[in-house]
Predict the 3D structure of the following.
Amino acid sequence: MSVSELQFQAGSVEAAPEQAIEGRSQWQLTWRRLRHDKMAVASVIVILLMTVLALIAPLIASLLHHPVDVAYPNTGLSAAGLPLSPGTHGFPLGTDYVGRDLLVRILYGARISLFVGLVTTAIATVAGVTIGMVAGYFGGWIDTVLARFIDAVLAFPVVVIALALAARFSPSLTIIIGVISFFSWAAISRIVRGQTLSLKEKEYIEAARSLGAGPWRIMFLDIMPNLMGPVIVLATLSIPQAIVFEATLSFLGIGIQAPTASWGNILAEAQNFYQEAWWYVVFPAAALLITTLAFNLLGDGIRDAMDPRTERIFNARTDRKNRKNSRSRAGLADPGSPLAATTDGS
Amino acid sequence: MLGFIRFLIRRIIGGIVVLWIVDSLTFFLFFSRPVILVARELAGRTATPQVLQEVVRNLGLNQPIMVQYWRFFDRLIHFWRSDALGESFFSQESVKTLLAQDLPITASVVVGGVVLWLIVGLGVGIISATRPRSLFDRLSTVGVLAGLSMPVFVLGELLILLVFLPLNENGVTWIATGYVGLSQGIVPWLGHMILPWITLATVQAAIYTRLSRGSLLDTLGEDYIRTARAKGLSERRVIYRHGVRAALTPVVSQLGVDIGALLGGVIVVEEVFSLPGLGAQSVTAIDNGDLPVIIGFVLVAAAFVVIANIIVDAAYALLDPRVRIS
């Protein structure tokens, strides 16, 4: 525990609640805290905006009269045959090396990135939670084998394996989603396994068992709901990782193949035009960075909102808020935390 | 010490088993397919039927898979021979020679990058943890988040666009892309390596800053730190002797996990900065469909990960005596 948290606790003790506090569920509390987290709210807005733009990409393409795969060698390239700068000839963000509309290609890239990010995270979360719970709950040799396997997957040189698979099978969206999912579940599994190990010793599991509940019922109905907090955080943080992963594979030429647009392969093409066309690098890079940063900020925000004790990324922000709202915050404390115990006792 | 040696021997044997498994998987991944498909990939896209026949005959692709597996392993076990990894169909050179040529370049990237990454990651983490919520701490936490969200190749491209090109246009030619060997002098070598190092280190350092900051903050809250302070030790001694040493163990164990990621980062960095190292060559090999080189690279990469993991484990055991016993 850090000095800051001690100060925080001391502050809450002084500002003990004066009136009775109505009961709120953990989810209500989390939602409340999250709603007041400006960074998290801004991230959600950015993510929604990006999603909407990705969904209406074909509409924007038809409004601009620039289909994604159509090159405009006459209007889309300069006299020297180089990409056009932003705003010329009706290309808002300029064009790429064969004269395609860069904006439209970036928006189509967003479709790939978000799709890969969400699908792989969904697969990785389901697999990760199931494997982690099985390892943690059953223990014994099952746990030994699964835990070793999880460690092995975490230590795999991912890009090297992807290179090998790309050489063996021809790269496709399915292969990419398969590879990324395969390397994403292990991190979730490791945390879930640890949580399950401690949860299964709790009295309510004992109670469920003595009532005759089987292991699967206990795992999915009694243990899983209590895992949802960390799992949601991990899943949110695994989306940007998957997006970066896909972009990296596409950049290396072993992911999404041209002419399908992906942020990674746009940036790979842009490599030959550093000097002539800065926008060719900057705009797709910005789209990628903004998206991953938003998911990372949201994940951090959810983590903070779940557990008021966690070390915060933006200390300054929360610290100010702690002081301002110390009274209401004390009442909002997680019932399981030592913080709640201190406030109750005072 | 005897316990440590025993620990080391156990880890080395474990490492050999892992390598055997990885090599077998690689073999079956590529060779358990119809003969003609394998032959076509080994011979390249432009091969004529005659060449294909020759490849099948020379490599014994018609033989039962277990016989081929045995021969594959027999070559690998004699890794000091020049044909241990076969021949590139593309340049007809021994894959081992090809990879050995590229190794110094990759080693330059890895060693410099890792040193920079650990210095920056641990340094910033320790300073942030000892001055929580100072301006430095706040800036570093923002930097960490940006670093975490930054794909290696994007950072590399932005560095080329925003640092390398403006400098070059203004006559500063010391910083350059491509590769110049150490034999050309240490200064030009540094100039070619500095941007790749920064690229590789920044992204990785972010994780380590966060980890070492959190770990040190936890450690500094422990009772024995209060005891050390109460004894009247200087703050410097408390932090560096008592705090940092204990806080380092989770960082070192994370290091083992990140070696694979590091290798991925190296491939991307070589590609971005046109360094003809192992990673960039293997990407080229994929474009050429040069299967022997790809297989060779996968095997070398696996060996690197296993060896690096043993070194990390050894360091961990030296730092934390409890590991040796269990």
